[in-house]
Amino acid sequence: MVILADIRAQRRMSLQRYGQPRMTEELQELGNQVGQWHVGRLMRENGVKIIKTQKHKVKSIKNLI
User: Fold this and answer.
1) pLDDT (tens digit, 9 = 90+) per residue, 14-42?
2) Are 36 and 21 in contact (CB under 8 A)?
3) What are phi and psi of 33, to 5 degrees?
4) pLDDT band for position 63 (cuts 50, 70, 90)
5) Could you tell me which of 2, 34, 4, 40 has the C-alpha nearest to residue 20?
6) pLDDT digits over 40-60, tens only?
7) Under 8 Å CB-to-CB from 38, ≥6 apart: which residues?
8) How far, in Å, CA of 29 to CA of 13, rounded?
């Protein structure tokens, strides 16, 4: 499967951070005609998972002043 190989290659290049919407955009830029739900299904069925990152949270009010 060419699409699955492209998904795995893009996953490595994005440091495992691209989810379903962004992965679809990248694959479409490469010339693959795929939809968002198809990419999500392929990722889910083949165990391609992403690493979720947390945004920085302000811990104290001193940092705001």
Assistant:
1) 888 888 888 899 889 989 899 999 998 98
2) yes
3) -100, 95
4) low
5) 40
6) 898 989 988 888 777 777 777
7) 3
8) 15
